[in-house]
Design brief:
80 residues, mainly beta, globular
């Protein structure tokens, strides 16, 4: 999802996954800055599938959680 004209975007989105849909033990989320010329990598966060919070019951609220974006190996985080 793109948040245009915003230097501090907040997505406030919740993603739901069925554990049976994963074929690996790790979920990686990459965040990019969309530009006209070249998109810039901002960072990523990784989750062990077993550490992803679950909702019981499925429609119950989750507490907001912030995650620090980490640079990828051999890539620099964009500054500015």
């Amino acid at each position: 999802r793109i948040v245009p004209q915003n230097l501090s975007p907040e997505w406030n989105q919740v993603f739901a996954f069925g554990l049976d849909t994963f074929h690996a033990g790790l979920l990686e989320v990459n965040v990019w800055d969309k530009d006209m010329a070249k998109d810039d990598f901002l960072g990523h966060v990784e989750f062990e599938i077993t550490e992803i919070p679950s909702r019981r019951p499925p429609d119950s609220p989750l507490a907001p959680q912030w995650y620090k974006l980490e640079p990828k190996v051999n890539e620099k985080r964009v500054k500015g």
